Amino acid sequence: MHLSGITRIRVLVIIVCIVIFWLLFKQFLENQAVEVEEIVIKPSGVPVVVGVYYEALCPDSKHFVVKQLKTTHDLAPQLIDIDFIPYGKASTEVKPDGSLKFTCQHGQIECEANIIHACTIDVISDPDLRLNMVTCMIRDNIMPKDAFHRCAKENNIDVAEKIQKCYSGPHGAELLKLHGEKTNTLRPRMEFVPTVTLDGGQYKQALILKNLFKEVCKVIAGRGPAPDVCAKESLTA
What we know:
The chain is mainly α. Helix content is about 55%, strand content about 10%. A 3-stranded mixed sheet has the order 2-1-5. Strands 3-4 form a two-stranded antiparallel sheet. α2 (about 60-75) packs antiparallel against α4 (about 125-140) and α3 (about 110-125) crosses α6 (about 160-170).
């Protein structure tokens, strides 16, 4: 009877170990599935959607927008559609009264700047004007409201009051919260700011950040014949 009891205990321990191993393995598989990015292959001739997950006061974000994104657009605007997502590695807290509090990597000034960017992106429908405004503001965003008014004047924005109303009220915070939710759905998760997606895929970030034009042309070439503009000399950071 004594040996039989020991045997039963051993069998029970083995069963428990098997169950634990299976649960851990199942969790591992689920995590792996979550981390797989979805890359959408689009028909030839359709612009590549460039998703820019950035921060308004981030030096690397500034460098990418000014040196890569704006230059690529100016060289071949027909190749890309731009989706700006200002948030980066910020965090969002919903207070008991329903109001929102943000914590940003470069301080509260960046949170303010991110909200202004979010409102600008939301209100301005013209993609060229939207890019010009973001590029202008991100060059010198240390005083976000001054940067907005300066850039609105330089670009002859006729919806400046609407944007100002947005960032001065609760709607701007709601927009930033939505950008945060979108940022948090990135798979793989954001490790570097900016993170840039091409048609939803992250590909090799170092190559995209160094030469966006070349990587956009690679995506287009994967669909079919690349346009003549892709034969031009690629950009360098």
